């Protein structure tokens, strides 16, 4: 999937998908484990980046 066609999620949508709190999501962004971009004053996270975080957590747990 190209960046132009990637689904962009808001932080609350990421929180719901990962079942995490707001500060934890921002900590993931700050530590660069969760890719995000800023459009104007809005933070958006590609849906693929959320899947990458899940995959990385699964690999670390194994």
TrEMBL record:
Taxonomic lineage from the root: Bacteria, Bacillati, Actinomycetota, Actinomycetes, Kitasatosporales
Source organism of the structure: Streptomyces narbonensis
Name assigned to this protein: Helix-turn-helix domain-containing protein
NCBIfam families linked: excise
InterPro entries: HTH_17 (IPR041657), SinI_DNA-bd (IPR010093)
Superkingdom as given in the UniProt entry: Bacteria
Domain Helix-turn-helix: 8-57
